[in-house]
Design goal:
The protein is of the alpha+beta class and about 170 residues long. It has two helices and ten strands; from the N terminus they run ααββββββββββ. A six-stranded antiparallel β-sheet has the order 3-2-1-6-7-8, with no helix packed on it. Strands 4-5 form a two-stranded antiparallel sheet. Strands 9-10 form a two-stranded antiparallel sheet. It is globular, with a radius of gyration of 17 Å.
């Protein structure tokens, strides 16, 4: 019975944390679709960067896992940074043999290059990117060798922008 209680606590810890943060677990992955203009104006920081490191560890209280993602800042589009790197913290990750996975969270990976819309650099959030994956665009080399292609966080090509709402369209 002791083993079950320990496992039960691990399974309930993320739900408990969501409850403490005022988030409803049933709605935790429901995010309203926003346009590019709204996302840009509501974001504290927008930058082009490359992921240098991804490091998961226990939170300070030891109840959950977080992942620090360190980016090389290649270009600041909006806002400012204090240096050539920035570290953003996401809830979830893997420490040892334990993994905390957050539904619909596309965790950046080492070497990834992209454009990132950061909602807030000063507050702790499950995902610091605005609108979750909506604020996470990948930049990959075009197979033809002529520049880069823009993809959504789940690797779908961005094929255009809707003028009225400035929504990024993908296939």
């Amino acid at each position: 019975m002791k083993g079950f209680n320990r496992i039960g606590r691990w399974l309930l810890a993320p739900l408990f944390l969501l409850g403490l943060s005022g988030m409803n677990p049933a709605h935790s992955s429901s995010v309203n679709e926003v346009g590019l203009g709204e996302m840009a104006s509501a974001s504290e920081l927008v930058f082009e960067g490359r992921v240098l490191a991804v490091d998961s560890s226990w939170t300070e209280d030891g109840r959950s896992i977080r992942t620090d993602v360190t980016y090389e800042v290649l270009d600041v589009i909006k806002g400012s940074t204090t240096g050539r790197t920035i570290t953003l913290t996401f809830l979830g990750g893997t420490v040892g043999h334990l993994r905390l996975s957050i539904t619909d969270l596309n965790m950046p990976v080492p070497g990834e290059k992209g454009v990132y819309f950061v909602e807030s650099t000063g507050s702790q959030q499950v995902n610091p990117l605005y609108g979750w994956s909506q604020g996470h665009f990948l930049l990959v080399k075009d197979p033809s060798g002529r520049g880069e292609r823009v993809l959504t966080a789940d690797a779908r090509p961005v094929t255009g922008l809707e003028q009225a709402g400035f929504h990024a369209k993908s296939r």
